[in-house]
């Protein structure tokens, strides 16, 4: 009898467990996509420009009116959600940007944005406080000359994503790119301990560019501090003059609202990475979804 009860409860346990582990449905190309993703776009942290742009896109494309919503998360949580969905070929719509390793790691595609809400093309700019050039012409000259590309930046970001220490990755990048570093530091005088206060948000792109530029300046004898903060305080600290510079302003659209807010007190030093892109993305197996317009269907 005891043994029988034991078997029955084991059976119940097995049934319960299998019921819990039912995986959500695969993407079905014959059904409209909205209900399949619960009319939800998986986003990142609230302070990101891409979140504000996505709210605009939801209204602009009439998705808000259909009860679509944007879920706040983090880059890491969004990417792990994306990874899970891809493993089971499930539907998902995410906020996406490039350069970023997500395009290297996952088979995803940007959705067309015919209304241009995320901007026709984006670039990453270096932004400094007013007066930085006068106070530190050497470091300023370096930042004027610092210009890499999505491929170099992507390599650094991917190495960090794989678990490398960002400062070590920066040192390795410097060693492997002597020509670029020579161009960026041409005519830049020795720092002699002069201070450079960098600020950044802990987004992968900012971690990459901040560490690389900080390390080059340190090698030149500058004393560089790197302070991580949220986007809003980042911009206001540059505007106030309690920080000197950031290498991670996505312009003209993504960081546009922050730039507009502080433009009288900050200065765009130059573009450090052209060819960026921001928008929404889905896994490539979502064959019928190619434009933000398609989400409405
Ligand atoms: N990003 C990456 C950020 C900036 C860097 C595009 C997700 C954003 O503000 O949206």
User: What is the helix/strand order?
Assistant: HHEHEHEHEEHHHHHEHEHEHE
Bound ligands, each once: 1,1-dimethyl-prolinium
Strand content: 15-25%
Query: What is the structural class?
Result: alpha/beta
Q: Estimate the helix proportion, in percent.
A: 40-55%
DSSP E strands, number: 9
* CATH fold title of the largest domain: Dipeptide-binding Protein, domain 3
Mean model confidence by pLDDT? 94
Q: What is the correct CATH architecture of the largest domain?
A: Roll
Q: What characteristic shape results from the CA principal axes?
A: globular
The CA-CA distance between the termini, in Å, is: 58 Å
CATH superfamily of the largest domain: Dipeptide-binding Protein, Domain 3
The main sheet comes to:
5 strands, antiparallel
Q: How many domain regions? A: 2
The Cα radius of gyration reads: 23 Å
CATH top level of the largest domain is: Alpha Beta
Q: What is the count of helical runs?
A: 13
In terms of per-residue confidence, which ranges show pLDDT below 50 for 5 or more consecutive residues? none
């Amino acid at each position: 009898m005891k043994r029988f009860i034991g078997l029955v409860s084991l059976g119940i346990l097995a049934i319960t467990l299998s019921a819990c582990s039912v995986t959500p449905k695969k993407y079905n190309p014959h059904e409209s996509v909205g209900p399949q993703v619960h009319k939800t776009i998986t986003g990142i942290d609230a302070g990101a420009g891409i979140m504000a742009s996505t709210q605009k896109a939801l209204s602009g494309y009439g998705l808000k009116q259909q009860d679509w919503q944007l879920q706040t998360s983090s880059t890491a949580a969004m990417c792990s959600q994306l990874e899970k969905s891809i493993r089971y070929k499930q539907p998902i719509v995410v906020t996406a940007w490039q350069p970023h390793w997500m395009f290297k790691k996952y088979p995803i595609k940007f959705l067309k944005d015919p209304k241009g809400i995320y901007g026709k093309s984006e670039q990453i700019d270096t932004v400094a406080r007013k007066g930085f050039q006068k106070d530190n012409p050497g470091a300023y000259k370096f930042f004027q000359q610092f210009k890499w590309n999505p491929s170099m930046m992507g390599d650094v970001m991917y190495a960090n994503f794989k678990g490398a220490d960002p400062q070590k990755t920066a040192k390795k990048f410097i060693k492997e790119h002597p020509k670029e570093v020579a161009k960026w530091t041409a005519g830049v005088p020795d720092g002699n301990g002069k201070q450079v206060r960098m600020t950044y948000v802990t987004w992968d792109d900012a971690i990459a560019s901040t560490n690389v530029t900080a390390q080059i300046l340190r090698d030149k004898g500058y004393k560089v501090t790197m302070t991580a903060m949220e986007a809003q305080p980042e911009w206001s600290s540059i505007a106030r003059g309690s920080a000197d510079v950031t290498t991670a302003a996505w312009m003209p659209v993504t960081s546009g609202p922050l730039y507009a807010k502080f433009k009288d007190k900050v200065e765009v030093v130059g573009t450090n990475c052209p060819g960026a892109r921001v928008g929404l993305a889905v896994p490539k197996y979502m064959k019928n979804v190619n434009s933000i317009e398609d989400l409405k269907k």
